[in-house]
């Protein structure tokens, strides 16, 4: 939450809301003075503290990974996104996260197949972040790779067949 806000603010986004499961991270975000609203919420266990179809764009950066936010959070992210709105998500591609990444991409594809959203981008980023061990490093670079996904929520719910 606190690391992304300066980047968004610098690109003209001014009405920022943030959620985090950690009170400490929320306090760190509060100190940036860039958020209009901050709320504590454990993603994947609690509903987001926002009404349906409320946000033009939803981002989840750095939390979709093994032992963090479960892939079951995706419908909740869709719920709070306006029709035609955007969702930007990221995950790591390091060896210990590959099973999670596979599950995430299966759920992303399932939701696209249902007509909930349309994929605009899935871009691999080679030097996503520094590796914490040589085993996690991408080809000995000292970094792990990651993926940025960009989806657009479909503006009209798909018709039920039959």
TrEMBL record:
InterPro entries: Methyltransf_11 (IPR013216), SAM-dependent_MTases_sf (IPR029063). It comes from the Eukaryota. Gene3D superfamilies: Vaccinia Virus protein VP39 (3.40.50.150). It holds the Pfam family Methyltransf_11. GO terms for molecular function: S-adenosylmethionine-dependent methyltransferase activity. Residues 11-88 form the Methyltransferase type domain. This is MET27 protein. The lineage of its organism: Eukaryota, Metazoa, Chordata, Craniata, Vertebrata.
């Amino acid at each position: 939450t606190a690391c992304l806000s300066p980047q968004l603010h610098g690109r003209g986004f001014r009405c920022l809301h943030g959620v985090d499961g950690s009170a400490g991270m929320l306090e760190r975000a509060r100190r940036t003075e860039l958020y209009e609203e901050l709320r504590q919420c454990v993603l994947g266990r609690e509903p987001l503290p926002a009404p349906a179809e409320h946000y033009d764009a939803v981002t989840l950066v750095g939390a979709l990974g093994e032992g963090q936010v479960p892939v079951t959070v995706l419908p909740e992210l869709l719920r709070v996104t306006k029709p035609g709105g955007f969702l930007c998500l990221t995950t790591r591609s390091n060896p210990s996260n590959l099973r999670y990444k596979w599950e995430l991409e299966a759920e992303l594809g399932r939701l696209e197949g249902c007509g909930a959203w349309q994929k605009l981008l899935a871009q691999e980023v080679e030097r996503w972040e520094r590796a914490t061990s040589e085993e996690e490093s991408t080809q000995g670079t000292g970094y792990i790779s990651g993926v940025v996904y960009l989806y657009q929520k479909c503006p009209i719910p798909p018709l039920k067949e039959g």
